[in-house]
Amino acid sequence: MENGFFKNVEKKTGVNMKDIFDLANSLQHANFKDEQTVRGVIRKVSQIANKPVTKEMEDKLVSSIVKDGQQLDLNTISKMINKK
Predict the structure, then answer these.
(1) What is the percent of the chain where pLDDT is above 90?
(2) Which InterPro entries match (predicted)?
């Protein structure tokens, strides 16, 4: 049943669930106070979501997460990317 659920999600979103799980696993031990780490995560989410992120938007996201201490999760990044 789980496999069918994930296949339906993939079909509806166009996002490969393996990519999502790989990203989630990489986030578990990431240092979100490190600018380069945060930039890498933003780029990976952008790639998975097929939503290009401008340099200006990337800088804004990095500032919000690293400097302002905003909590980082996939939902937060997704919302910020979709606001552009």
Answers:
(1) 15
(2) SpoVIF (IPR025942)
